[in-house]
Amino acid sequence: MKIIDTHAHLQSEEFNAILDDVINRLGIVEKVFLATSYVNDIKKACEITHKYDNLYFFAGIHPHYANEFKIGDLDIIENYLKDEKCIGIGEIGLDYFYNYAPKDTQKTLFSNLLDLAIYHNKWVSIHIRDATKDAIDILSTKNNLKAIIHCFNGDLDLLKLALDKNYLLGIGGIVTFKNSLIRQNITNVPLKNMVLETDAPYLAPVPKRSKTNEPSFLQYTLNALCSLVGAQAEEIAQITYSNSLRVLNDK
Q: Where, in this chain's numbering, is a divalent metal cation 2 bound (predicted)?
């Protein structure tokens, strides 16, 4: 049995001194996709993925950093798309919870990066927090987009859009949280649209919530899904693995 962690931040400083150990204890996690947030973050992720055969990266500008975006950054991202280890653009999106950047700035950047992905026929990893309506409005206008909705929170309006557009939905540690919306609505998510993720070092699953999250903890998310959707671990692993390979095969 093997699975893929489709969203992690192993280039984060939390892993600087322990990355080799984290990679050595991946267990059933065969590959890890790194998501990035700003230009220097992309550079570091790129370097790490070239050190480890089973790591790949998305090149993106997180909405938290939308205010720092410069027009030349588009060219930088475009150049990274040529790298053999780059699988797309991400993470990108909208985040109105912290509002580190004005909403209009976030929306403009999000739309432009989606257009870049469509132009190059690349996958995107999308972050949406407290911004579902605006995200749906933007995504509804984008055709031929290949997308993973990172850290899907269980919102049924977003789920409808994702299923209509045949997006993949990233299921992570929050599905193990007792009162989470995704836990309540997970049976509405078809396995054919599901991929697994950790968002390491964030959102460690139960029973590791006080720990620094890492890809090996994805086993706990898989176990929770087995109980919630009534499927065997081998079935969920096989289907989500195949779904994740679509990103690699189409990169």
A: 127, 150
